[in-house]
Amino acid sequence: MAQAFRVSDLTGIQVRPARLWTHSLSWILFVTGIALYAHFSIVRHQENPEDRVIPSATQLVQGLKSSVLEPAEEDDPLDPGATLLEQVRHSMIWKDTASSAGRFFIALLLLIPAMLLGMHMAVFPYAGAFFLRFVLFFDKIVALSLLPILFIVFGIGEWSKIMLMFIGVAPTLMLDTYNIAGGVPREQSVKAFTLKSTNLDVAYRVVLKQVLPQLINSLRLNLKPLALFLFAGEMIASTDGLAYRIAIMRRHMGMDIIIPYLLWVALLLFMLDALLRITNRRLHPWYQPL
Amino acid sequence: MQRYPSALIFRVMKPSNPAQSKRGLRTRFAACGIALLLAFVVCWSAVPAQAAPPTFTVGWSVYAGWNPYFYMAKSGILKRWADKYGVVIKVQRFDYAASLDAFVAKNIDACTMTNMEALDMPAAAGVDSTVVLVGDYSNGNDAVLARNNLTLAQLPSKPILLVQKTVSEYLLERAMVLNGLESQLPRLKLLNTSDSDIVGAFLGDKSNQVAVTWKPLVSNIVDQDKGVKSLFDSSHIPEEILDLLVVRTDVLKRPDGSGLKFAKAIAGAWYETVAQIAAANAAAISGSAAASSDSVASYKEQLRTTFLYSSPQAAAQFTQSGELKQKMDLVRQFCFHHGLLGQNVQSVDDVAILYPDGAIQGKKDRVRLRVDATYMQLAAQGKL
ipTM of the assembly? Predict the structure, then answer.
């Protein structure tokens, strides 16, 4: 039962936009952004046809092709007769994505015990008393300033970057998990105890089970700081990786490669976030956030 | 009503017609907003537009040969020369990479950079640039450091800490080539390390055996670790790592001639400053050391391995010589082989360099970097 549209509806709360608008309105901002970029690119290219600061569409396509099809410059060139699949497999973007993704997922795996510790801190009072203050303090230390110490302790290899990611994100996740798990009413654990459950039963089968969807959402929100620390570590000392390539390209204004890389990273993070969201919904269909 | 004074208050406060007063409130807001806007507009236009003298910005970053710009501005030498030519010159400090970005984006008019970056950044990005001053060359300021008595021949399997795609990589390549190890170049394992962290990383972890960097970071490392030796430094490749002042050609060629005045003013100020530094004037040295928060001793140590062209005659002579062309050729070949001239540049001649005698290295219609000895010549003849 569609009602006539009035201008005051734009600021109303009790409105139901037509399907057309819900699907298409959000594209307006994208189109505006792309139009602004195109405008500035054209203006700069009129002054200077070889401008690389705001690359034109052809330059971007060229940059995309060279990152997807050509090997990194430190690697040996491919035989000219290589198939498309082989070219992609040995390309710059594949190599960088593989090394960055490796570091990212190792850090992600290390964060799982951190979240479990946060849950334990909420459920077991002695664990909370022991860890809480320290985690609160450690959370406030800006991880990037610890980077020189990390380089000394872990070397310049993979582990310093993984530990940077861990130190940057784990305290936040621990505190968030602590708050979420602490929100489970005490009555439930008491009730479970009356039904002859052990401590671990309460922790894992009562508390963890019901807060898991919220924990997964918290992890989704922290994917961005995790990627941020990964990039910081790679830009400062690395031999390969997405941010390494961006840092190198920056030295000679290679924006035609940097912009495709940025969009690729955005796409990867978006897909990971979507994967986590769909997994959450599948595993916990009963979880309907208010 | 007197029995209930609160009712009186409420009666006064309660509007008679809600819809009317809401509209009244809205019109009141609108009226205030328009009044404020008018006030702003009036104030803005009340400021008379004066004829401002042309303003130019020079970007500099911390390096032994560029610190004098800070002293030049602070001591008033620059202002005196700028007033003489009727221009306003501002100096602005940047990080090195940020200064190059600002120059390419045309946010600043002139920038201090090495000859390698003059080719990579502005020239290769199509921003026509002119070298106006050749300040100095690195005569030992850049070095290849190694522990455990490693030799150059043993480098290929060890990870090397350096800032990639800068003069450090150029220095390393020249080191290998000059020692007959050119064939080993592809086997070098380069680890891109930011200059802010290279000292900590190299000193903190003894398994990092090789680093290539510049003073004062080199001095920091060598002072703190006696086992580190310099395998090769820029004194073995004199005149190849030049430190220049580069101005955008369209700024220099402004139709009202203000660009020329700017170039003359900055050249005059530079040679006056450099003369003071060469004469070890205490104020000049401490002023320049202060630019990078260095101690005077540390700055003097850096100056020791910097060959300053303190007399304009020496600078002009070098700029007009065939040596410059030879050295620039080495640099441009390096830049081309590492894709620094641009991803799609097919030949090294696509970014051409024009020299003071009219010779062009590269394709004639693709000149992007010009070397101009006029201002150094004028300074040498005392005509500034």
Answer: 0.75
